[in-house]
Design a protein that fits this description.
six-stranded mixed β-sheet, Immunoglobulin-like, mainly beta, SH3 type barrels, 13% helix
Length: 583
């Protein structure tokens, strides 16, 4: 195992205990950039200067922390804001000027004269729908008028209503409408036009930027995933239904917000359009026959291998006590019942099949263990493989021994992460923290590896792929936090852990109290949905050590001894979790 010892930014680490030498006056603004756009009431400012200097922002004196760092906020007006930062010591004076633009807040128009604005228009981009679907539209204009919309070659003067201001963030004149499509032409995109008649009886017209595409009922549109991706529950947001591999075929039934809407037979889902390629018209609907499984078992995994005639979308559902994994495959029909069980004993407690309806096939697997240690689904050689990780052997005297850990230093390369007032980069702290954790694990017999080596840019998907390739039992992602561009850097502080899948909750819960014991404030144990926390093939912990944007916490996070304490804390939490699950 290659270990990397970074220079550790120990210039910063030494500042924790050593007096900062006096020298020429300087001013270093680490956030924001000299020119930026911030759509908020405030902008965060941080940086550093000589501790003995007087620092002012727009003539307001700002307190310096012992190492000369500063962190504050200043109010923003709409439009261009000129922020002057000065550092002065005696006759020496340095000035820097920031230009921060704050977009104007949307405002209600005057009732007269009648106007229609090119904002808040829906559809803002092209939408794909089928006859029988509902098209929802929206526009913004003078309040109190009568709004209608028309669809080229389909219909005119469909009514719209003005939304109450308590549903539009206090903006008057937001009009919405909806129509059910029937017999709309599908030969070319259709323009959508709005007309508003105001209180002064004037009429204003405006075309929506997005056009309407009608998908032909007689020619199903089939797509295939071009890369591993997620099926989402909505056209907006990050709430995955399932993670699926490449080359999976799906029936596309719409498009909105840069996502394709797909038919999952008993429901619909959405996939980012960039992850899907359109197949030629005439491609059959995604349907397949599936056989009963061949059952295999090795040291780490129980495998169920089911021959299937095409790659179809799927989802899994997992419950504990006992461990039950359900695999639903949309578009599959069972073709055989023949199962030959292995001669040797396997962890399989119960195996059942169900044709939920004409085109949804469910495999239900119950193992003789209480919790999930990971599972994965993939296609290979004309079969779908459902692999469930067997409970590993955990020794009470050396719990991490013989286990495989993927240690993931967050960010790297071009992705620097948060920046502290003293200029410490999160990616560097994460990497040092990871190196110390790997040393602890390897010294106690674990097999360990980094998801990124040195200072390189590695995608989240590639990090997960590397961990799966190494057959990792655990994926430990190490980060340090930073508040937003408008957040208060003096109040946002503390450590936190994150999980998405239920199988990862106990691991994160075990780590969190050890992070608090080393003196970090509690930020929280948080359920959220991130790319790596949705990985299923191993147990995942995502740990945020603290806030680099907080001037006090940054001194801890840039101190070698404290980083070692953070590594000790994560290691202790892992050990606690393993001991709780030992034989």
């Amino acid at each position: 195992m290659k270990h990397l010892t970074l220079p550790l930014i120990l210039l910063i680490g030494s500042l924790v205990t050593a007096e900062v030498p006096e020298g020429p006056l300087y001013l270093n603004i680490t956030f924001p950039p000299p020119s930026d756009t911030v759509d908020a009431d405030y902008v965060r400012l941080s940086g550093n200067t000589l501790p003995s200097a007087v620092l002012k922002i727009n003539n307001r004196q700002i307190s310096l922390f012992p190492q000369g760092s500063f962190a504050t906020r200043t109010a923003l007006l709409e439009g261009k804001n000129r922020i002057i930062v000065t550092a002065q010591k005696g006759d020496e004076r340095i000035q820097d000027t920031l230009s921060i633009y704050r977009p104007q807040k949307p405002k209600s128009l005057h009732p007269v004269p009648t106007q229609l604005e090119e904002v808040y228009i829906e559809p803002a981009e092209d939408v794909w729908l089928r006859n029988g679907d509902h098209l929802s539209v929206q526009c913004k204009g003078s309040p109190g008028g009568e709004a209608r919309f028309s669809i080229e070659r389909f219909g005119k003067n469909f009514p719209m209503i003005e939304m109450p201001m308590d549903q539009t963030n206090g903006i008057a004149g937001i009009y919405v409408g909806v129509v059910k499509l029937a017999n709309a032409p599908d030969d070319r995109p259709l323009e959508i036009d709005f007309e508003l008649t105001g209180l002064d009886k004037e009429k204003k017209r405006l075309a929506a930027p997005g056009k309407l595409h009608i998908l032909a009922d007689h020619l199903p549109l089939i797509g295939m995933t071009a890369a591993p991706t997620f099926i989402y529950g909505t056209a907006k947001g990050y709430v995955p239904i399932s993670r699926i591999p490449d080359s999976v075929k799906m029936h596309i039934i719409g498009r909105e917000n840069r996502r394709f809407k797909i038919d999952l037979l008993n429901r619909s889902g959405y996939i980012d359009a960039r992850d899907m390629k359109i197949l030629p018209f005439g491609t059959p609907l995604p349907r397949a026959t599936i056989s009963a499984p061949v059952i295999q078992q090795d040291k780490n995994w129980l495998h169920l291998i089911m021959a299937i005639s095409d790659r179809l979308p799927f989802r899994t559902n997992v419950t504990f006590n006992p461990l039950v994994v359900e695999l639903d495959i949309w578009g599959a029909r069972q073709a055989s019942h023949w199962i030959t069980y292995p001669n040797a004993a396997v962890d399989l407690e119960q195996l059942t099949f169900e044709q939920c309806d004409d085109h949804i096939f469910r495999t239900r697997v119950q193992l003789n263990q209480e919790r999930s240690w990971g599972y994965k689904v993939h296609y290979k050689d004309g079969a779908v493989h459902l692999s469930i990780r067997r409970r590993p052997q955990i020794h009470s005297t050396n719990p991490v021994g013989n286990l495989v850990f993927a240690i993931d230093p967050g960010h790297g390369g071009e992705e620097t992460g948060a920046t502290s007032p003293l200029g410490v980069l999160e990616k560097d702290i994460n990497r040092i923290w990871a190196d110390k954790l790997i040393t602890l694990l390897s010294q106690n017999g674990a097999t360990v590896f980094f998801t990124r080596q040195e200072d390189e840019t590695v995608s989240l998907a590639e990090r997960v792929r590397r961990a799966e390739e190494e057959n990792a039992h655990f994926f430990i992602s190490l980060h340090n936090n930073g508040t937003t561009a408008s957040g208060n850097p003096l109040s946002a502080q503390g450590t936190s852990v994150y999980f998405t899948l239920q199988q990862n909750k106990d691991l994160n819960w075990a780590i969190y109290p050890h992070m608090l014991k080393i003196g970090l404030a509690p930020y929280g144990r948080i359920y959220n949905s991130y790319f790596v926390t949705n990985a299923t093939g191993f147990l995942v912990a995502l740990v945020e050590g603290g806030f680099l944007t907080h001037p006090t916490e940054e001194l801890n996070l840039a101190n070698d001894e404290f980083i070692q304490k953070m590594a000790d804390a994560v290691y202790a939490g892992i050990v606690d979790f393993l001991k709780a699950n030992a034989e």
